[in-house]
Specification:
Shape: elongated
Largest sheet: none
Distance between the termini: 11 Å
Helix content: 55-70%
């Protein structure tokens, strides 16, 4: 059986994280972020997700099967 996390590469997941981060930066009011949120702060969040949440993302993908 093939799992969703096997079909989606790490690079594709990272591209999704990048896209979401850029969306949040450009649409901060729609994302319920405060006005003090900066691109640098979002970059830190994005990097933290990429470094520490990859396994959690894959597990979540597989749980949706």
């Amino acid at each position: 059986m093939k799992y969703p996390s096997d079909a989606i590469s790490d690079e594709q997941i990272m591209n999704i994280i990048d896209t979401v981060t850029e969306y949040m930066c450009c649409n901060w009011s729609d994302c319920c972020m405060n006005e003090g949120m900066t691109w640098d702060k979002l970059q830190k969040v994005r990097n933290e997700i990429k470094e520490n949440a990859m396994e959690m993302i894959k597990i979540n993908l597989d749980m949706k099967r």
